[in-house]
Specification:
This protein is α+β, with helices and mostly antiparallel strands. It has two domains: 158 residues, Aminopeptidase (3-Layer(aba) Sandwich); 86 residues, Glutaredoxin. Helices cover 28% and strands 26% of the residues. Strands 1-2-3-5-6-8-7 form a seven-stranded mixed β-sheet. The protein has a four-stranded mixed β-sheet with strand order 11-10-12-13, covered by helices on one side. The chain is globular and about 55 Å long. The chain starts with a strand and ends with a helix. The relative contact order is 0.14.
Length: 250
């Protein structure tokens, strides 16, 4: 498999795998703008040359938009192989490329956020365990911080305390999200407008800086939905799924 590494020079013409569309699509535009700013911080987006969901995105943990303490590690933001590209060993190739890069850059190891059972938008825990990743820390309601250490003496990474038991004081629905996932550019405004039309109390908080992400009230900052202070889900909801959720909470 031929892989392509995104750069400032090729970012505009290359597709970004997780949202294959033209640059005029708001999802693509939002993600590419976010990527362009992160490339200078050491972010790597390595993807299949073929059109399809086959890529890995990682960044030095100090620059990761998640509330973790993992200085000296490389953090995987997203790792996704699916569809016709699954089952050919491409996941192994992508992870090996990440590991080699991290070692060449003198990193202590690799971290990634997952869960005990496979959840939407989170990396597969069974695959990562097979590859030697161990649990470094946990956070409610179902998150695990996995790590693969290159040095047995290295500090074990952990979640920041404020995110381990996600809770906020505000009532109604409150959505925290970043532009790190392209789908939020489409679906966050959609459910906000849906809530407005239905008279549902709703507030969205766009996390627009690494500092805000490091101090977020939940470990999965790409999308964190709360209701009356309690954490609900990291799944990016369509209008239909949002309304079904509203109904289930009555």
């Amino acid at each position: 498999m031929e892989f392509i590494k995104l750069t400032h020079e090729n970012l505009e013409q290359e597709h970004i795998c997780c949202a294959i569309s033209s640059n005029k699509d708001p999802q693509v535009a939002s993600k590419k703008m976010w990527l362009n700013e992160r490339l200078n911080e050491g972010l790597v987006f390595l993807k299949s040359a073929q059109r399809g969901k086959c890529f890995i995105e990682y960044i030095p943990a100090e620059y990761a938009w998640v509330p973790i303490e993992a200085d000296g590690y490389m953090h995987i933001n997203c790792f996704w192989v699916s569809g016709s590209l699954k089952g050919h060993g491409y996941s192994n190739e992508l992870l090996k490329a990440c590991m080699n890069d991290a070692k060449e850059k003198g990193k202590k190891g690799i971290t990634v956020i997952s869960s005990p059972k496979k959840k939407p938008f989170l990396s597969d825990p069974k695959y990562l365990a097979y590859k030697g990743f161990k649990i470094a820390d946990t956070a409610e309601p179902y998150y695990t911080l996995l790590y693969l250490s290159f040095d047995e003496k290295a500090d074990i990474p952990k979640f920041k305390e404020q995110a381990k038991k996600p809770h906020i004081s505000e009532q109604g629905f409150v959505l925290y999200y970043t532009s790190g996932c392209p789908y939020t550019a489409k679906y966050a405004p959609l459910i906000e407008e849906c809530a407005r039309q239905k008279g549902i109390q709703f507030k969205s908080v766009h996390i627009d800086s690494r500092e805000k992400a490091k101090n977020a009230p939940a470990v999965w900052t790409n999308y964190a939905l709360f209701y009356n202070g309690e954490y609900l889900t990291n799944e990016i909801l369509s209008e239909k799924k949002f309304l079904a959720l509203v109904e289930s909470l009555k």
